[in-house]
Amino acid sequence: MEGLKVRGQAMDSEDIYYSFISGANEVIKEKLELNRINVFPIADGDTGNNLAYTMNSIIENAELLETPKETLASIADAALMGARGNSGIIFAQFVNGLYMETNEDEAIGLSDFAFAMNKAGDYAYEAISNPVEGTMITVISEWAESLSTLAKSTRDFKEMLADSLKVALVSLSETPEKLQVLKDANVVDSGAKGFVHFIEGFTQFLATGQVENLKNALGKVEFQEDAIDVHENFDSSYRYCVEGILQGEDLELVEMKSKLETMGDSLIMAGNNQKMRLHIHTDDPEKVFYFLKDHGKITFQKADDMRRQYESIYDRKHEIAILTDSIADLPKEIMDEHQIHLLPLNIIIDGVNYLDKLTISSNHFYELMDELETYPSSAQITVKEAEKALLDIAVNYNEIIAITVSSKMSGTYDSLVKASLHPDLENKRIKIIDSKQNSGAEGLVVKKAAEALDAGHDFDELIAIVEETVKKTSIFVSVPTLEYMLKSGRIGKAQAFAANMVNLKPVVAIDEDGNGIVIGNAFSTRGNMRKIQELVKNIMEESPIESYAIIHSNAGERMTEFKQYYTDLIGRAPDYTMDISSIVAMSAGVGVVAIALTTE
Which helix H or strand E contains 291, and what residues bound it? Predict the structure, then answer.
């Protein structure tokens, strides 16, 4: 090709494309070191992973097109779609700004390049709700400013970029003086260092013009977490690191930013009025996405639990991890007390894939379910999603016990079993246990496992305890209407019509194989509840109740009455009372109330 080594005064599409590929490659090579020094904004050791993921998206998805602007549009879109974490989204917005400010010519001159880079730095600044000096954004700005000066006196791109790299290195070295947390840890900013590595790779191509086998030299990129040194305690004001992609015809970015700023911190919005990628730290991921759904089409969602991530690295209570899916109805306080890991299942609403118990809450779901033209559906997790869940945990634990919803009701168990065979997990001890339950009954099984772990039982003993608890656990559900079971496809129209003709109120339970079954019918809600009372009394005659929970779906007074009755009958309050997961509510409907119990 006719590269910069020949022409020097302008960059064409090939120059732009291969410089970006070279820069991306350099960042990926430094992934582990970037993870190791990551202390800001959270010492979670993932800046290298996030930037590597973003850069890999550019390598795999960007295209070399006819003009620099068209090529940059492809690079910007690839960066935006693959952006991950604070640093990845800032970089994506930087590239988006570069695309927006590049002209339509067949080549970019020195001054036009410097101007576009400066404007790109402004775009990156504007994307951040509260920019912090001494970070990636500072190095981007100071490096871009140097280009404006150098473009006036430099002979060619190779010389200009080489000189600007010196400025970037100085800026990077000064980050600890601008941010105390970096100074305390005796490191430079990880995201800023990643950007400098990008410039190094970008400049290296300009110096050599070598493009042969560049993609082939990248090798395999691994994205699971890597162990890092302890730098600081987890002190974030917010728990979840949330990301999303929103598409629309005319996104109101300024209006959205103003509202989103009230929901958390570390807000970054990258993109334009047709596609936007969001990053925010918040305690309420579901509120973020409930707001976004009215402003465009949500095409991607992620909500990482930073607290659980930090505990896994620095503050593990045990060397065995317990994982369960979101159908297990267990209060967050109990999950936190025992450091139980959550695998959110997928619920599809208006074509948007939400993460159960993370990006959709039961309260928001109830508001939506009667308004939708197409009733929501669930989608089992893929093997790839299950692999990621296990791999993320396995970085810090050698033994994992995963307790799933009944395999007769969901493919979660099968996906996790297949995922546990991943070659990177072959040296780990992993047991996937089918709870043969759902909702509160599954929750009680998980709770028993966590309590047994606290009591000091080892891996094999825990498995035996869980499998025995499964046999001793039951759930009885009072269903006031079959309307929602019909909508969700759990029963056929003929069954629903026949039941509704006589106003039947079924009692639903789960058999020993994990199948949902109707074990009784009544002609009124009161009669329905009496049948459950009789079932519980019969169980108590055989064996005392060790633990129990009351679960419901927005049942109001019915739940209060249910709870009081069993408090009096059993002689103590339930271990917990809570709203069921959105996926369970989708099938069971509003007004359902149930008792889950485990016998001694």
Answer: helix 285-292
Angle formed by the axes of helices 47-61 and 13-29, nearest 10° = 150
User: Residue 406's CB: how many other CB atoms inside 10 A?
Assistant: 23
Q: Please give the structure tokens belonging to residue 325.
A: 């899916």
Contact between 533 and 515 (Cβ < 8 Å): no
Largest CA distance in the chain: 93
Which amino acid appears at position 376 of this protein? P
Q: How far apart are CA 90 and CA 198, in angstroms?
A: 13
Residue whose tokens read 């009733």: 375
DSSP 144-160: HHHHHHHTTT-SSHHHH
CA distances from 405 to 64, 243, 411, 470, 593 (A): 47, 27, 9, 11, 19
Q: Residue 6 has which token pair?
A: 């020949």
- In terms of Cβ atoms closer than 10 Å to its own Cβ (0-12, 13-18, 19+), residue 388 is middle
Burial of 523 (0-12, 13-18, 19+ CB in 10 A): exposed
**What single letter denotes the amino acid at residue 6?**
V
Q: pLDDT at position 220, please?
A: 45
Per residue in 431-483, pLDDT (tens digit) is: 999 999 999 999 999 999 999 999 999 999 999 999 999 999 999 999 877 66
Residue type at 230?
Answer: V
Q: Cβ contacts of residue 102 below 8 Å, gap of 6+? A: 68, 69, 72, 108, 112, 116
User: Strands 429-434 and 399-404: what pairing?
Assistant: parallel
Q: Which residues pair with 355 in a beta bridge?
A: 346
Instruction: Supply φ then ψ for residue 279, to 5 degrees.
Output: -135, 130
574 preceded by cis ω (within 30°)? no
Looking at the chain, the number of H-run helices and the number of E-run strands are: 25, 19
Report long-range pairs for 93-96 (Cβ below 8 Å, ≥24 apart).
93/123, 93/124, 93/127, 93/268, 93/269, 93/270, 93/271, 94/120, 94/121, 94/123, 94/124, 94/140, 95/120, 96/120, 96/123, 96/270, 96/271, 96/272
Q: Please tell me the predicted confidence (pLDDT) of residue 130.
A: 84
Contact 393, 402 (CB under 8 A): no
pTM of the model: 0.81
Angle at 497 (CA atoms; ends 495, 498), nearest 5 degrees? 65
Per-residue pLDDT of 14-63, as tens digits, reads 999 999 999 999 999 999 999 999 988 777 678 898 899 999 999 999 99
Rounded Cα distance, 466 and 243, in Å:
35
Pairing of strands 377-379, 240-247: unpaired
